């Protein structure tokens, strides 16, 4: 479908943006497939080892910088964003309660990959109905696609110092998705201005100091990486800094001034399940593997696996206020079949014992964190 008149393509692009909003996306932009300007920066990041165990990020480099290598027919990429923050999740209250579990707000509800991919596919079908036969393919945080540079090129926002996409009207608490298509649609103006100014709040607040410099993340120190992507033991020096964060971390976003413009999600599927927005660590630590699989069905949390789940919670329990319930929960897993779980349980018990002996309070990891208004 490359023989459409220019005016028809312009009209189609406008229709696509209307249809995208009807499908629940808050914004839609269109860009080309070329990301060659990202190659040097990306390869340097890999060379520094900042990707940690995520070896898959080293694969298919040609496809990362040119979507034509991924979908040969592709001429344009339709980029979308969708808000995910659920209302009334008591973010500050939970982060300040060391006996409660903090789960990153993007993963409290249904796995976003399936929902957004389905909506993007519906958008592709709607376009196909309009123009006749068309080649399209939807992606959501999948395949070798550099989502953030594409979103920036498509006018969705700019890359903040925390490396995430920021939007002046919507902050950063949204998902991204892409629809590759074989139509030479007019492209949108990229966001070229950095609106972060001199602000370094996101860098300063990071519990584990995972940003060696603005716009560069050392994933090996990032709590999201440690609790989701890392398969083995969490480095001991980082464990006390993780607080009660058991799956992901939102701190660099929550502190960002632009997120005062964030909107709550319009998708009920992103609302909390299994009381994960307000639940005791000890309660989650008691989940058997069968319970974990059942209660995280359809959730992105499954990515960490039951062993990783217990490992993460053991660390959080070691950073908690302690007490009989916490000690009993940890004691119950001292003979767990997993070496990883046993190791982190022993560490947690030693942490609690050392604090009890010294009669000091749990480490406060966020003396500078502001009270957020969500």
Q: How many structural domains?
A: 2
Series of H and E elements: HEHHEHEHEHEEEHHEHHHHHH
Helix content: 25-40%
Strand line-up of the largest beta sheet: 1-2-7-4
Counted by DSSP, the helix tally is: 14
- Beta-strand portion reads 5-15%
Distance between the termini: 45 Å
Rg calc: 22 Å
Overall geometry comes to elongated
Count of beta strands: 8
Uncertain residue segments: 363-374
Report the major sheet.
4 strands, antiparallel
**Mean pLDDT metric:** 93
Structural class: alpha+beta
Can you give a write-up of this model?
- There is one protein chain.
- The chain is α+β, with helices and mostly antiparallel strands.
- It has 2 domains: 155 residues, no CATH class; 158 residues, no CATH class.
- 36% of the residues lie in helices and 9% in strands.
- The chain is built from 14 helices and 8 strands.
- It has a 4-stranded antiparallel β-sheet with strand order 1-2-7-4, with helices on both faces. A two-stranded parallel sheet has the order 3-8.
- A hairpin with a 5-residue loop joins strand 5 and strand 6.
- Helix 1 packs antiparallel against helix 5 and helix 12 runs parallel beside helix 14.
- The longest helix has 20 residues.
- The radius of gyration is 22 Å and the shape is elongated.
- The N and C termini lie far apart (45 Å).
- The C terminus is likely disordered.
């Amino acid at each position: 479908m490359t023989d459409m008149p220019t005016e028809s393509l312009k009209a189609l692009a406008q229709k696509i943006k209307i249809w995208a909003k009807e499908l629940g996306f808050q914004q839609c932009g269109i860009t080309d497939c070329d990301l060659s300007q990202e190659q040097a920066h990306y390869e340097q990041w890999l060379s520094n080892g900042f990707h940690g165990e995520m070896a898959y990020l080293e694969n298919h480099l040609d496809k990362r910088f040119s979507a034509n290598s991924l979908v040969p027919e592709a001429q344009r990429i339709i980029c979308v964003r969708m808000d995910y923050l659920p209302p009334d999740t008591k973010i500050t209250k939970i982060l300040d309660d060391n006996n409660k579990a903090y789960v990153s707000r993007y993963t409290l509800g249904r796995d976003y990959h399936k929902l957004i991919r389905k909506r993007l596919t519906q958008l592709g079908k709607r376009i196909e109905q309009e123009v006749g036969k068309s080649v399209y393919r939807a992606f959501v945080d999948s395949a070798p696609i550099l989502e953030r540079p594409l979103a920036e090129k498509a006018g969705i926002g700019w890359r903040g110092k925390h490396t995430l996409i920021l939007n002046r009207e919507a902050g950063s608490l949204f998902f991204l998705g892409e629809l590759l298509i074989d139509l030479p649609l007019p492209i949108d103006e990229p966001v070229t201005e950095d609106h972060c100014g001199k602000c370094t709040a996101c860098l300063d607040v990071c519990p584990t100091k995972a940003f060696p410099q603005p716009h560069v993340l050392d994933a090996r120190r990032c709590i999201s990486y440690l609790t989701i992507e890392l398969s083995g033991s969490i480095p001991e020096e980082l464990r006390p800094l993780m607080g009660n964060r058991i799956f992901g971390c939102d701190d660099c976003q929550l502190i960002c001034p632009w997120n005062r413009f964030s909107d709550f999600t319009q998708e009920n599927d992103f609302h909390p399940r299994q009381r994960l927005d307000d639940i005791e660590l000890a309660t989650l630590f008691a989940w058997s593997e069968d319970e974990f699989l059942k209660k995280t069905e359809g959730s992105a949390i499954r990515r960490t696996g039951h062993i990783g789940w217990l490992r993460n919670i053991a660390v959080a329990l070691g950073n908690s206020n302690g007490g009989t319930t916490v000690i009993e929960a940890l004691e119950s897993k001292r003979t767990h079949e997993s070496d990883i779980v046993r190791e982190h349980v022993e560490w947690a018990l030693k942490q609690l014992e050392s604090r009890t002996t010294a009669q000091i309070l749990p480490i406060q990891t966020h003396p500078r964190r502001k009270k957020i208004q969500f």
